[in-house]
Each structure stands twice: as C-alpha cells, then as structure tokens.
C-alpha cells in the first residue's frame, strides 16, 4: 500500500503546486501571488532570487524536523532516548516503514525535484533581458542544493536513482537505481558548476563559491574513502583534491572561526563568518514548514521555551559521547546539558536556567544545541514549535578538519605543520591544548565533538566503514550504547553498563529503501545501472525500465 512517503508523490506535488513557498522575513520576500505562474514569474533578476529562496528551507523541512538528528546522531551513538523512532536507528533495528527513514528520503528527493524544476524554469522561462550571469548564479544555487541532497543519498543509501526532470518521472516512474560511484560523481559535478558560477560574496545566508568549494572538499574526501573499498587505501588523487579545495576556502575566503564556540548557536549570530551553508528558518507566519522545530523536540522541559512545547526530557547524551570530552572542553556545555549546568542566556527574566536532570528521572542530560529559550530571551522570535535559528549544514571548522584528514591520508600519523595549524585552531577554540602529532582517531574524535548534534557524525562512520569496516564495527561495539550514568558537578560519574550490548552488521551501513517506494517502483530493487553523463538533458536513458 503506497503512502505519501513515496518520492513519486512528492515529485508530482512539486510540479502541481506553487513555484514559491517562501516565508516572510527579510531573506525570503514573498511576491504577490495573484495570477502568478511559472510562465510569467521569471521576469527579473529579483524573481530569480525569489525562485531559489525556498531551496533554503521548505524543501529541507522534513529532514531537519527529526530525520537529521535521527540519522546523523542517534545512529552514530550520540543519544540515549525513550523515543521509539530514534531508538530504531540507535539499535540498528530500523525497518523500511520507519517514519524518520521515510522523512529523510522524501525530503532529500523534494530538494532534488524542486531544484530540478527551478533549473528547468530558469532555462526555459526566464526573460530574455535577464543577464546570463544572473541566470547562471540562480542555476548554481539550485545545483548546489541538488548536489547536497545527492551527497547525502550516496552516503546513506548508496545506489539511488539520479533524477533531473521531475516531469519525465510521471510518464516513466519505474526507474532503476544508479551506481553509487555515479551518484558521487553527479553531486561533485553539481558542486563544480556551483563553484564556477556562484559569487564569492552574497547576501547573508546565500551560498557562495566558498560554500561549493567546502562541499567539494567534503565530498572528495568521502569519495577517497569510497574508492578504498577495492584496494583498502584512500584514493590519493581525491585526497589531494580535497586538501586543495579545503586550502582555498581556509586561505582565500577571508572567513574565520567564531571566537566563542557557544556563540555559534545563538540566534543573534546566525549567518556568521563561520557558516558556509545553513538552512534559513523563520518563526513568523502560519505556513508550516518554514520554521526550525528542533527546540520543540529537544528542550529539556516546557519551562525552557515558555510556549507549550519542550518535549526533550526523554532524550539526552549517550554515556560514550560524554566520556569523549575533556573537562576543559568548552564545547561540552554548549552541546549538551548535565546536572548543575547554568545557562544565563536561557530564562533570562528568572536569572538564567539551571539544568537539574538526573539519571534516575530519565537520561540525566539534555541536548543544548539549537535550544535558544523563550520569546523573551530572543526579542520575541520564538513560537510554539517555531524558532528562526539557522541549521548548520557546513561550517568552516569542518573544512579545517577535512584539510587535516586529507593530509593524513593513508599515513598512521602526521606532524605536517599546516594540518596541525588547522586541527589545533579548532582545539584551541574549545580551550584545549595543541597536539604535535595527529592520527586518524584524533581527527575523527575532534570532528565528532565539534559537530555533535549537527547531524554529521553517522556520515563519519559511513566513510570510515568504506575502508576499515571491521574497525568501525568494533568502534560501535565499544560505545556500549544505552549505557546509563549518574552525573554530579565536580563529583564522580557512575556508569551502568547496558543489559545487552548493541552490535552492528556491515549491512547496516546502507539504509533500507522506504517500503512505499519499493511498492510504487519494484525496479528500485533491481541491480543499479550506470548513469548516462553524456546525455546533456539528463534524461538518463540507461535507467529506464
């Protein structure tokens, strides 16, 4: 029985609905809607900017709403939770009908289909007096978003259908999956186009050339690992390319790390100098799907938000993640709350908020990232299940660490001065001492702590699993997921081992395809086929039934 998780329903809906689903803040100015159609809309350069605006929020809503934390953090072992949907990912017991699985798949293909539609409309319907540069810039934004979605699909599912024209899918719904290596290449091609045609600077929140180069660094490093499946060593050409792209972003962009790590996650600092790509949300209006809902689900208690949500009392940090933090690491308190932690920026009218959770009453901890508090803490910019704080998708700090990873490559360790400079810049900001030699595990754990609860940690394990699969299974085994703990400020932390250990299998590193899509398109379970890159229209003749 098909349900609305099917990408084919999603893609059809994109075609049949408005080309714009913008919101009402300054980043997304909604145009007059009377008699607006794709045929008459693309008349000015301003129209092109409006057309790409929904690619920064609405199409990603289902992924950001719950799936990002579920896929990126629960599956990585960062959580202990009473939520059954998250727990399936944590326990490696996920089924093809899991809601979070379906939301992730649906949202990624919605981003792809809306990007495809935007590209097609600009190419076919933009007014003749709009400059080629403006059209290329708008297409580059759409290709950036499409490439980002495919980069996730490649790492989460592997072989997936590469789709470039949603209209063709209606007539030919039974498409085959394409080879994983082709999905990687397709995403890289999109980012290369974006890097060539995006400006070096733009309005706050818009992606730039540096955003695309940062993603090329991430994706070439991922592909270096993917190629190691055959030979067991990271591909040196991709490593060198990743390092060069990372270098360009670090040395030529003029961007810098934010001085204080905790300030990254305060509303007043959105679109800061460290943000290379962030989803843009608003708390305003009645339109569902343009807001950030993270606070509603993960705030420790309703008193924190003051608007009737705040349902995060059953979800907290895993004991394993807690153990990774040095007591001096300033990222810890900005990432998750422990008993006795005080936050002056929350509940300001009452002198701040002190978390008093204990292991006996639940997880004994709570997530802090993206928890910004009450309306009175944020100039009124909070509502029920609504905040406007951006969601980071790529930060400069990650690019620093990608450079170090690419330089390390297949070596056991490195003392390369440039790699150490960038690696230690991230550590020093966190209040930690510099290292003089770094290993794969050093960088892995530094990146893990830097990006915890930003939906990225599972992707680290996927990339590692490509070339050292048994080591990753041992890493997961050592996490002792669902271990509980009792924490006291300044005192000893008591850990209680889980009754049974949670283990992973190699097959767990590709998510199951959603049941609804398999029913709609049985070809999804057939062997993947090569993608036809020579077909400029992208109709992908090779993957038709």
UniProtKB/TrEMBL annotation:
Q: Where is the SusD-like N-terminal domain?
A: 78-219
Which SUPFAM superfamilies does the entry mention?
TPR-like
Which domain of life does this protein belong to? Bacteria
Q: Which organism is it from?
A: Fodinibius salicampi
Q: Please verify whether the record's keywords include Phosphoprotein.
A: no
The molecule here is called: RagB/SusD family nutrient uptake outer membrane protein
Cell location:
Cell outer membrane
The RagB/SusD domain is annotated at: 317-526
* Keywords annotated in UniProt: Cell outer membrane, Membrane, Signal
Q: Which family does it belong to?
A: Belongs to the SusD family.
Checking Pfam families in the record gives:
SusD-like_3, SusD_RagB
């Amino acid at each position: 029985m098909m349900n609305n998780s099917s990408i084919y329903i999603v893609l059809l809906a994109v075609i049949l609905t408005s080309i714009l689903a913008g919101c009402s803040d300054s980043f997304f100015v909604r145009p007059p809607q009377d008699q607006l159609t794709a045929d008459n809309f693309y008349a000015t350069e301003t129209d092109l900017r409006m057309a790409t605006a929904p690619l920064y929020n609405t199409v990603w809503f289902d992924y950001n709403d719950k799936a990002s934390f579920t896929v990126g953090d629960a599956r990585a072992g960062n959580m202990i939770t009473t939520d059954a949907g998250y727990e399936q990912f944590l326990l490696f017991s996920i089924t093809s009908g899991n809601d979070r699985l379906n939301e992730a798949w649906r949202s990624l293909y919605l981003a792809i289909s809306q990007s495809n539609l935007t590209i097609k409309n600009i190419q076919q319907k933009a007014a003749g007096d709009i400059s080629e540069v403006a059209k290329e810039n708008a297409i580059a934004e759409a290709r950036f978003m499409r490439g980002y979605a495919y980069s996730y699909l490649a790492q989460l599912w592997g072989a997936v259908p590469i789709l470039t024209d949603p209209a063709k899918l209606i007539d030919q719904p039974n498409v085959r999956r394409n080879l994983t290596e082709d999905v990687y290449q397709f995403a890289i091609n999109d980012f290369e186009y974006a890097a060539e045609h995006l400006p070096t600077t733009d309005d706050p929140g818009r992606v730039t050339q540096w955003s695309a180069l940062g993603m090329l660094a991430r994706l070439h490093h991922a592909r270096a690992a993917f190629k190691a499946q055959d030979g067991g060593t990271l591909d040196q050409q991709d490593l060198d390319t990743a390092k060069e792209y990372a270098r360009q972003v670090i040395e030529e962009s003029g961007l810098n790390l934010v001085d204080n790590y905790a300030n990254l996650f305060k509303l007043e600092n959105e679109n800061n100098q460290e943000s290379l790509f962030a989803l843009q949300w608003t708390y305003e209006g009645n339109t569902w799907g343009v807001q950030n809902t993270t606070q509603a689900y993960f705030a420790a208690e309703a008193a924190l938000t003051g608007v009737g949500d705040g349902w995060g009392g059953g979800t907290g940090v895993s004991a394993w993640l807690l153990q990774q933090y040095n007591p001096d690491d300033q990222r810890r308190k900005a990432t998750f709350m422990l008993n006795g932690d005080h936050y002056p920026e929350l509940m300001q009218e009452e002198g701040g908020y002190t978390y008093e959770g204990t292991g006996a009453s639940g997880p004994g901890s709570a997530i802090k990232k993206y928890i910004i508090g009450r309306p009175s803490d944020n100039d009124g910019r909070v509502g029920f299940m609504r905040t406007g704080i951006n969601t980071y998708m790529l930060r400069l700090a990650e690019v620093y660490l990608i450079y170090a990873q690419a330089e390390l490559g297949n070596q056991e360790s490195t003392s390369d001065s440039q790699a150490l400079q960038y690696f230690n810049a991230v550590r020093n900001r966190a209040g930690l001492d510099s290292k003089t030699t770094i290993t794969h595990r050093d960088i892995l754990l530094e990146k893990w702590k830097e990006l915890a609860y930003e939906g990225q940690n599972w992707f680290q394990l996927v990339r590692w699993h490509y070339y050292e699969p048994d080591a990753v299974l041992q890493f997961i085994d050592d996490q002792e997921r669902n271990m509980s703990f009792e924490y006291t400020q300044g005192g000893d932390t008591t850990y209680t081992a889980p009754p049974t250990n949670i283990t992973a299998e190699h097959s767990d590193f590709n998510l199951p395809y959603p049941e609804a899509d398999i029913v709609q398109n049985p070809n999804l379970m057939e062997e993947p086929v090569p993608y036809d890159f020579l077909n400029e229209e992208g109709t992908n003749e090779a993957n038709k039934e």
